[in-house]
Design goal:
95 strands, 1536 residues, mainly beta, 11-stranded mixed sheet, 12-stranded mixed sheet
Length: 1536
């Protein structure tokens, strides 16, 4: 290329010895030899990777003779390859290297170089010119421009080499390979990025030398795409930096917009040639793709020049001119529909467009305009003319605009406003009136229903404004209103104004809106409001005011303070209307102002209001304003007095006549018999209250009736105001009627009063009654005194019916009322006092009678007792609850004081009072002693029987001798109590801790064990329901210091009387019992008695002093505990009972037993029900535990072959105790004595079958036991896999004879399901003992055998694993056994050492193969089994057989027939498992057949196939001393 030396060029001397040498660092190769002759030619072959074809042949010719060396300068063509390689991310790498046509450095998938080369002079060379056809100068001309050179042949490679012929290069010039370094690839969708590390200046003197070192990366082609801005600018962006459209949009914003804030996000779309579709942000960009920035055009359609938006307008954008200004040939248009805000967005490239807007509000249905898009965003406003239509419908409803109709006299036509002519129904009518648009802006409603009303200046359709503020923008307005005028109708707008906000306008654009109704009226006439108001007449819509209340509310609201709602009286045809009364359409109403009239009616007696008085008003004029007519007899105002006698009537202003009616008014002057009273006229003034007062005088009828209830013979005294209220069975009252007048009474003799036999008529005096209301009614104070000598007593009536008036006179309105009752009485004779007569109704019991008598005598009830006046039991005091009978004779006696003092005896002589002692006198409980033991009673004077009741006196109490009680004298009794005690026990509450921490205990927390408490109590009431008895004794010091002892009862609490107070006379001084000396000795099965020490009674008495017996009465005391126990067995049957309270856990028990057994605590185990208990286990009552002593036991599990440790489970006495560690050892504590131990391995099974007997001894030493794990081996075979779809070979095809594999395994889990059993045996010899073993294989199932290497595990010297000596000999009918030699176990043991059992546990190993074979029975008696894997064809088989039999005549001399049919074997191949007969020259086939039959009989006699019959030799023939190993049938794998 550039004339630089090239080292390492191989030169082959073709004329010499053919040796090869290389050029040195100077590029020189020297051929040494004899001097050549002139004209002599030499041939050389030059080899170099830069040569085309890898080499070239040269011929040299000596020019002259002589010793001077001859020189041959060599130039060769530089062959340079350019190619591209795909990289991740879609990039392509451009590489170059120098080499032959099939260079190794070119990677798979390389593509040819497409582009041009640029020389140092800037000239561009087309790389394709070398290969047929570029129109530029050929790059192979080189720098010398030689055009005579022959063009190179195209290369049939994926890359095309650039060949620079040496004939075109000039030495000393710049290396022309620099052209390669300035390559410019040209591939659509990719941009070229040269490598900054490669330049023409950095290649050195020769570029070829650089390319000889391997492929050189010249640069990379990165995938790009093109983006066209709205202003026409273009940019190519790398695809790896902008893989998606959103990435490209951000890159465009940074590239074209300089990072300025844009009014909207950049939107990209396809080029118009590709369809111009708007691309989503997540769409992926392809290399070479052309995108264009789209203008975002926001179109807003408004109703007039306002903020009212028009939704659902269709906007279409069609291209007119492209960016260059030329007419566009694209027929593509963009379509959008405005949303609820009247806005839609379109995206399109820059250029001139036609914008077409379609909507039913437009006059022609659509409008169009020209728009120019030149920026990223554009805002367009399309103005729709603002017009409205006003029309009327006879039927008030827009739901069915095509319907209509109705009664024209009663219908209320509706008036509607809409914005589209399409919304006007066919039956719509024009309506006269005005349309108010604002101050001074009103338009008359057109006479035509379809004529539009322009509410703004009439613009052109489609008027476009770039901003919202252009033109009139007063919509929406708050002053838009419709005013309609119609005959015989009143206009009722739905609201004063309408379309006050944008939402209303939006609604009207979609559907008509109702403005109001033309309704049927009612006429109103006003009266009594003054001269001006009386002439006022107005109309109201009848539909809006259907009731009088609605009309009144409307008028009150319109008149303001001139008329309140309750002051409005509405009359229709002389009748005042109530609020709910209906108002008919087209009627005339008369309206009067109303004013209040107050009426006050009161009684004579207590001046209380008289309720129920009927008030009626009448007028002498008409409500229409004219004079009174006889036909108008309607009464409009009436009322009734309330409970206060008040009546308030609202009447129209003017003169009225008043009439009052009530039965109680019959006694008033001028009143009729039915109580009607005329009171004259009264004037009603507007807003001025008037009042009328009336007082009702009293006239009474008095009579009696027999009492239906109550004491027999009672009479009820009645009063009434009407004779008609007197019943037929009534009788005239006799006696005297006492009437309160002033401060006294006025008596009226009922016998002399007017009236008949049924009742007496009494006129009460005018002075009767109160001056003012507020006090009790004096009628209730009327009394009737019976005649002298009559046995009746007066009882006033205090009962009043619920809700009745407090005034008796008012209550007479409903009929007669009870004034009182004359009841029978009882008589009481008082000692030294009067004889009393008291009614039996109020004194129906002794207690009530006692209270009345004490009140009469002026003494307290405690000083008096009631008793029968005579007869048996007259001295017994009657109880307060005893009932009395009318006419009964009783006596009242007097009581005297009695003091009872009860004390507790003390050994010190200082007795204390006993509280709570019940005292009974004459079998009647009268009291209880206080805290001082004192009871102060009141009893009848005389001899009394006294009994004391208390727990210290026993269940029957103590009865004292008869005591004499004297009135006016101090009476006292002193008594000493007994010391009576009760001994019992209480069980603890059940503890759920045994079943788990369900009682709230935390896990690991000790359960609460409560003892049985032994109590002493002084009261039976303090003993709980669940108290139990005890076994044992109780004793203490009684009277005079004598010891008292008793036996405890087991069936119930024990009563123990320490001393009896009855034995001590009153005033006698004697030493009493000592409670502190009490001593209890209790016992119970399963418990241990522990008394409190010191005694709580003695300790408390010494500390506090006082009476300990009194304290026992307050609360029982625990004397001791019966603690639950458990039983401990140890040694040779010794038993010990221990308390659970002091031995909470097993650890506490062991600590106690350490001293008992003289053993270490860690060597003691505690068992319960055969299960060992840990130290933290909590003890429970009644448990039976056993203490045993343990010692450490260490079990080591080693492989029986090599003594290597194994992981195995250890079984002690049939129970699994753990797993050995990595050292094969497991150590734990075991009870002393004999045990049985075995091991269990997941693969080797349980060994031994009969567990090993061991004895564990104490003494602190570890008992070590080694357990060898004997190898257990399985021998089985697996057949080769057969493809299901594989067809059997044809007759002329050579069959496949894949062998079966024979395996040895130790882990049964690793044996496949298709494992097959074998016939044969396995052998092994123990290297330590020299013992030889043999195991016969089971023919029907895979059964393992164990190798008894017990003593091998004890060896300590290194040795080869005994399993290396295992040998297998097996066979199958139709197969030939081919063992591996050496065996895999032997080879591994010799190479690796270690234990082969461990390796077998990891994976089975193959011991050999069973090859498919054919069996030949020879006439000589010899049986030959021939494996068919090497000689399956008949010629080979014959040759092998002839060689085995030593037939010198050759294979052709053998006679070979099938044993079954004696047919000659002629097929091309021998079939597997074939039985053949063979006869050598001079032998007979019949003899061979006979030998075969003899062999088969011998096999049948042996019971199976003879393994030795396969023809293989057995290396072990010495059977002497061989031990036969049994098979482990229990571990057999049943395989067919």
């Amino acid at each position: 290329c550039c004339g630089c030396v090239v080292a390492g060029v191989h030169v082959v001397d073709k004329d010499g010895d053919g040796s090869t040498a290389s050029t040195d660092a100077n590029g020189v190769y020297v051929r040494r030899g004899s001097a050549g002759k002139a004209g002599q030619q030499l041939s050389f072959r030059i080899l170099h990777s830069a040569l085309k074809g890898g080499g070239a042949d040269f011929t040299a010719c000596f020019r002259s003779e002589g010793p001077s060396p001859a020189e041959l300068p060599l130039f060769f063509d530089a062959c340079v390859h350019l190619f591209t390689v795909e990289e991740e991310g879609g990039q392509k790498m451009l590489q170059a290297f120098a080499g032959g046509p099939d260079p190794l450095p070119i990677p798979i998938g390389a593509r040819p170089f497409n582009g041009c080369l640029v020389g140092d002079d800037g000239r561009e060379y087309d790389f394709a010119d070398q290969h047929g056809g570029g129109d530029k100068r050929n790059a192979s001309q080189g720098e010398n421009g030689d055009e005579n050179a022959e063009p190179e042949e195209p290369q049939a490679l994926v890359t095309r080499p650039l060949v620079l012929p040496a004939s075109r290069l000039r030495p000393g010039t710049r290396c022309p390979v620099s052209v390669v370094l300035q390559a410019q690839p040209q591939e659509p969708g990719f941009a070229w990025f040269p490598s900054p590390q490669v330049s023409s200046e950095g290649i050195g003197p020769c570029g070829l030398q650089l390319l000889l070192n391997g492929a050189l990366t010249l640069g990379r082609l990165r995938p790009v795409f093109t983006v066209v801005h709205v202003d026409g600018r273009r940019a190519s962006l790398p695809l790896d930096e902008c893989p998606t459209v959103s990435d490209a949009a951000r890159r465009v914003a940074a590239e074209f917009c300089g990072g300025i804030d844009l009014p909207a996000e950049i939107v990209l779309g396809q080029s118009e040639e590709d369809g111009g579709k708007v691309l989503a942000g997540d769409e992926v960009i392809s290399p070479g793709m052309t995108l264009q920035v789209l203008c975002r055009m926001c179109v807003r359609v408004t109703f007039g020049r306002s903020s009212v938006q028009i939704p659902e307008a269709e906007v279409q954008l069609a291209r007119t001119k492209d960016r260059s200004g030329s007419a566009s040939s694209s027929q593509q248009s963009r379509l959008a529909v405005t949303d609820g805000d009247g806005t839609c967005v379109l995206h399109a490239p820059s250029g001139t467009y036609t914008l077409v807007t379609s909507h039913h509000l437009l006059q022609e249905g659509q409008c169009s305009m020209k728009v120019e898009l030149s920026g990223i965003t554009a805002d367009i406003i399309v103005v729709v003319p603002a017009v409205v239509y006003v029309f009327m419908l006879l039927d008030d409803g827009i739901g069915d605009l095509d319907g209509g109709g109705g009664d024209s006299k009663t219908a209320s036509p509706s008036v509607w406003v809409c914005a589209a002519a399409q919304h006007i129904p066919n039956e719509a009518l024009p309506v006269p009136g005005l349309l108010h648009l604002g101050p001074g802006r009103s338009k008359a409603l057109p006479s035509s229903r379809a004529r539009p009303i322009f509410i703004q200046n009439e613009p052109e359709e489609g008027d476009i404004s770039g901003h919202q503020g252009a033109g009139q923008t007063w919509l929406p307005t708050s002053e838009f209103a419709v005013e309609c005028v119609a005959e015989d109708r009143v206009w009722q707008p739905d609201s004063p104004t309408m379309l006050s906000d944008s939402q209303d306008w939006q609604t009207m654009l979609q559907t008509p809106l109702r403005a109001g109704l033309l309704k049927v009226p009612i006429t109103i006439r006003f009266h009594g409001f003054g001269d001006s108001a009386s002439e006022m007449v107005r109309a109201l819509p009848a539909e809006e005011y259907p009731s009088a209340w609605d009309v009144a509310a409307k008028l009150a609201g319109d008149l303001g303070d001139r008329l309140e709602l309750e002051e409005c009286g509405i009359f229709l045809e002389e009748r005042i209307l109530a609020g709910q009364d209906e108002v008919r359409a087209r009627c005339t109403l008369d309206v009067w102002p109303l004013a209040p009239l107050n009426f006050n009616v009161r009684t004579q007696c207590c001046k209380s209001g008289l309720s129920g008085v009927a008030v009626c008003l009448t007028e002498n004029y008409c409500m229409s304003g004219g004079p009174h007519k006889a036909s108008h007899s309607q009464t409009n105002y009436s009322g009734t007095t309330d409970e206060h006698g008040m009546c308030h009537v609202m009447a129209n202003v003017g003169e009225h006549q008043v009439q009052l009616t009530h039965p109680l008014l019959a006694g008033c002057g001028g009143a009729s018999d039915d109580g009607a009273l005329s009171c004259g006229g009264v004037n009603c003034t507007f807003r001025a209250a008037s009042e009328m007062k009336v007082v009702a005088t009293i006239k009474l009828f008095v009579f009696t009736t027999p009492a239906i209830s109550g004491p027999e013979g009672s009479k009820i005294v009645w009063v009434c105001v009407r004779m008609g209220d007197v019943p037929r069975d009534a009788r005239r009252a006799s006696g005297t009627l006492e009437v309160p007048v002033g401060r006294g009474f006025e008596c009226i003799d009922l016998g002399r009063a007017a009236g008949g036999s049924a009742a007496a008529l009494v006129d009460l005096p005018p002075s009767f009654g109160l001056d003012a209301a507020g006090a009790a009614c004096p009628l209730d104070q009327l009394t009737v005194q019976a005649q002298e000598g009559e046995p009746l007593a007066w009882c006033a009536n205090d009962a009043t019916q619920p809700g009745a008036s407090n005034c008796l006179f008012s209550r007479l309105t409903t009929g007669a009322a009870v004034l009182g009752v004359l009841k029978p009485a009882v008589f009481v004779l008082c000692d030294g006092g009067p004889s009393l007569r008291l009614d039996t109704d109020s004194c129906n019991s002794v207690g009530k009678l006692l209270a009345r008598v004490a009140a009469v005598l002026g003494r307290s009830e405690g000083e008096i007792a009631i008793y029968p006046s005579s007869g048996a039991g007259s001295r017994r005091c009657l109880s307060d609850s005893e009932n009395l009978v009318a006419g009964q004779q009783l006596a009242a006696g007097f009581l005297a004081p009695l003091v009872v003092q009860v004390s507790v005896p003390e050994i010190s002589g200082q007795h204390e009072g006993l509280a709570g002692v019940s005292v009974e006198v004459d079998d009647e409980r009268l009291g209880t002693t206080d805290e001082h033991g004192r009871a102060e009673l009141s009893v009848r004077a005389g001899a009394r029987r006294v009994r004391l009741r208390h727990s210290c006196f026993g269940p029957d109490g103590r009865e004292l001798s008869e005591a004499m009680v004297q009135e006016g004298q101090p009476n006292q009794l002193e008594v000493l109590s007994d010391i009576r005690l009760y001994i019992y026990a209480s069980e603890p509450e059940p503890d759920d801790a045994a079943d788990g921490p369900a009682d709230g205990r935390e896990p690991g927390e000790a359960p609460t064990i409560e003892p049985t408490l032994v109590w002493v109590s002084a009261s039976l009431e303090q003993i709980p329901e669940g108290a139990v008895g005890l076994d044992g004794t109780v004793k203490g010091l009684g009277l005079a210091g004598t010891e008292t002892e008793a036996k405890l009862r087991q069936d119930r609490p024990t009563e123990f009387v320490l001393s009896s107070g009855a034995a001590v006379s009153q005033g006698q001084e004697i030493k009493c019992g000592d409670v502190t000396s009490l001593c209890v000795s209790a016992s119970r099965t399963g418990f241990k008695w522990r008394p409190k020490d010191p005694s709580p009674l003695a300790e408390r008495a010494q500390e506090l002093g006082g009476s300990e017996y009194l304290r026992l009465m307050e609360c029982p005391v625990v004397l001791g505990f019966l603690e639950p126990t458990f039983r401990v067995c140890y040694g040779s049957g010794s038993v010990l009972d221990l308390s659970v309270m002091s031995h909470i856990t097993v650890g506490d028990v062991k600590a106690t037993m350490v001293e008992e057994l003289s053993a270490a605590v860690e060597s003691l185990w505690v068992f319960h029900e055969g299960k060992r208990l840990e130290d933290g286990v909590f003890m429970r009552p009644s448990m039976d535990v056993k203490i045993v002593e343990v010692a450490p036991l260490a079990i080591r599990v080693l492989s029986g072959c090599c003594g290597e440790p194994l992981l195995a489970k250890v079984l002690l006495d049939g129970n699994e105790v753990g797993m050995t560690n990595a050292s094969g050892e497991l150590q734990w504590d075991v009870p002393l004595g004999s045990h049985k131990v075995a091991i269990k391995h997941h693969a080797l099974g349980t060994y031994p079958r009969e567990p090993k007997e061991i004895v564990v001894s104490g003494g602190g030493q570890v008992n070590e036991v080694i357990m060898p794990a004997l190898p257990r081996l399985y021998v089985y075979a697996t057949d080769p896999d057969v493809e299901e779809a594989e067809a059997p070979p044809g007759e002329d095809e050579e069959p496949l004879f894949d062998p079966s594999c024979v395996w040895v395994a130790a882990d049964p889990e690793q044996i496949p399901d298709d494992a097959l059993p074998l016939q044969g045996h396995a052998r092994c010899a123990c290297p330590t003992s020299g013992r030889k073993f043999r195991a016969e294989l089971h023919a029907s199932k895979v059964v393992p055998f164990r190798l008894p290497f017990d003593e091998v595990a004890q060896a300590t010297t290194p040795r080869v694993c005994p399993l290396a000596a295992v040998r297998v000999r097996c066979g199958r009918r139709g197969f030939k056994w081919a063992p591996k030699d050496p065996t895999p176990l032997q080879a591994r043991a010799e190479d690796l050492g270690g234990c082969e059992l461990l390796r077998l546990l990891e994976c089975p190993t193959a011991f050999g193969f069973l090859k498919q074979a054919a069996t030949v029975q020879c006439a000589s008696g010899e049986r030959i089994v021939v494996a068919l894997d090497g000689c399956s064809d008949l010629p080979s088989f014959r040759a092998h057989l002839a060689e085995a039999l030593g037939v010198e005549e050759g294979a052709a001399a053998l006679e070979l027939v099938d044993a079954a049919g004696l047919a000659p074997v002629t097929g091309p191949y021998i079939r597997s498992s074939a039985d053949l007969l063979c006869a050598c020259p001079g032998e007979s086939l019949a003899v061979a057949k006979e030998k075969l039959q003899q062999w088969r009989k011998s096999v049948e006699a042996k019971g199976g196939w003879d393994v030795q019959g396969d023809g293989s030799a057995d290396s072990e023939t010495d059977e002497s001393g061989t031990e036969q190993l049994p098979l482990d049938e229990e571990s057999a794998l049943v395989k067919s």
